[in-house]
Amino acid sequence: MFIPRSKKDSNKETHKTKFMEWGIINKENWEGKTTFDLPIKRWDPLSTVKITSEDFGLRKEQIRYYGHYSYISPIRGTRPKGFKTMEEEKEFYDCSEKAMKKHQDVFSSVTAGEQVYDGWGMPIGDGFTIIICQDEMRRDNPFLEIPHQIEKVPEASKALTLINRYPSMSRIVDPEVELDIKNKLPPQLKLSRGINLVTISRHFYPSMCFKLIPTDVLVGIFVSMKAAILYCVEEAINNDYYDIPCMPFFNIGKKVGGSQPRIHSQTYIDLNMDGHGSRLEGYLEAFKEMGDNCHLCRTTHGGTDRIILNTEFWTFYNTGSPVRNYHIRFHPMEHIRRFSQLKINQIEDLAYALKIIFQALDDIEIDKNRNILFNCCPYGYDADFHMFADIIPHEIIGGAEMADDMRVARKLPHIAAGEIRKSLEKYLK
Ligand SMILES: [Zn+2]
User: Fold this and answer.
1) CA-CA distance, 82 to 174, in Å (whole number)?
2) How many degrees, rounded to 5, is the angle at CA 207 between CA 201 and CA 209?
3) How remote is the CA of residue 354 from the centroid of ligand 1, in Å?
4) How far is ligand 1, taken at its centre, from the CA of residue 294, in Å?
5) 172-181, pLDDT tens digit by residue?
6) Does pTM top 0.70 for this prediction?
7) Which of 27, 99, 138, 280 stands 20 to 30 A from 376 (CA)?
8) Is 134 domain-assigned?
């Protein structure tokens, strides 16, 4: 039976947490490490400006910025790769029932709640984890200091949200160690703080075969993400963090950052309290300028020829300024600011729509490596914002595109939309 865990609870069999696993830095694992091992957040001085608008989380006691920044996290390189061989990689494009059933991955032990062994008899993982939400039920405190042994997860469960074992930000830092780090780091660098979540399906479904993922599993993933985000932000505020950018996203496929074959989403919750990126600044400023005339609430997206799907609660369209060919943008009809404000009927509608749109894209052979990015208003900002999201299929990009916030696309958005609409027809009643 599950017992909820608070921050300080420890486990009978205490885990020897390696440096930065689950974002944990303690006295034991800091021993022998240097500043080069630390996860860093670094603002590019050539593109960083101080925030002056009070709407965007301006606090007098702390200087905050917008601009370009990088998270540099050496531990990200040590995480297990989901595909070891070309053969294995090929399997994830195999959407037959048979291919799906035999599969095991790094999450198998966590989702089964007991040690699972691979075909060679080797244990998968070490049996420790931190689970923030099982479906929408709160489990471990987001600031839990010690991982615990895996526990049985009900068969009927749809999704689990875990603390990422190989994150790009530190979550728990021993106060003495933090002081030591501060003294050792040069002033332009700072230890990055935050919570990295990963939400996985309870049963294995390959992310590359979207059409095989049952709608209720996708719904389960969204529901668990939402519950976990709310739990983390609530606890972060209880721990005196404020002004919190939160980025939910899916990396589907190896070419777009998905290192695991199982369908999963991630959420970056930045607790550095030092501002936000330049792209988000652009969105915040644009919505501010719109005032009461929100573009997304009013637009027809250039007539109807770029719209690919209108559901009860969502609009999907090809954006007129694509960052890749076939770049799809979607938003709820309701003017809400954040992913975590989505209601269950909006989530169910979204899951089904995404499923058929992904099938339609597969059918016309759009690259199966895709990102889904949710753009949300940071917590604590008093800004007007209409949440929207992007589906971006993988493509190789050029040099000029790296130099500015600009892309060269060859496909006319309304032509791309026409192709997708036609492909989608057979999935609509
Ligand atoms: Zn709106």
Assistant:
1) 32
2) 120
3) 21
4) 5
5) 999 999 999 9
6) yes
7) 138
8) yes
